[in-house]
Amino acid sequence: MSESGRFITLEGGEGAGKSTHARYIRDWLAARGREAVATREPGGTPLAEAIRAVILRDWPSGMPPMSELLLMFAARQSHVDEAIRPALRRGADVVCDRFVDASYAYQGGGRGVPEARIAALEDMVLGGLKPDLTLVFDVDPRVGLARARRRGEENRFEGEALAFQERVREAYLARARRAPGRYAVLDAGRGLEQVQDELRQVLEARL
Known about the structure:
By secondary structure, the protein is α/β, with parallel strands linked by helices. Helices cover 56% and strands 13% of the residues. Helix 2 (46-56) packs antiparallel against helix 3 (65-89) and helix 3 (65-89) runs parallel beside helix 5. The longest helix is centred in the middle third of the chain and has 25 residues, at 65-89. The two termini are 13 Å apart. 41% of the residues are buried.
């Protein structure tokens, strides 16, 4: 669990609307007198943002799955040490668009990296830090990809085949089934107002 403030993470496949919902959560917390820090992964610090650019770049020779995973955790180390832990220690709530569950979903489920390797890196980098609440915005990959492509600026994860996106989705849902106390799964295939109405109910019940 977090160290003083509350640590809330948002997960889901491409086009699930996480960035929009992260802003909603930040505003919901602020309206209740909480300092709310919104951040994202990969990213959140100057070093992590630089690593993000490397990760998302479409390299001509591709990127080996373990290289991708190690880069994700290199960015995460900077993010946790320089941004997340200091905010939690001063009592702020942290709202993060993706966190370690994304590595299990994308590099694990999507790329096939063994879960034990991801868990070893998680233990090394996070040292027991876990979100207080993880919101999984679940959407059919066909719907999510169509939304993402309408936004333009497609990155290489959004360009992956449908089978990859389906493996990512199933990995998220499997993790949520194993730990229902930490996760809440929301149907992100509905309209924004419906999703945020359910999101508000989850926040009121869990926080």
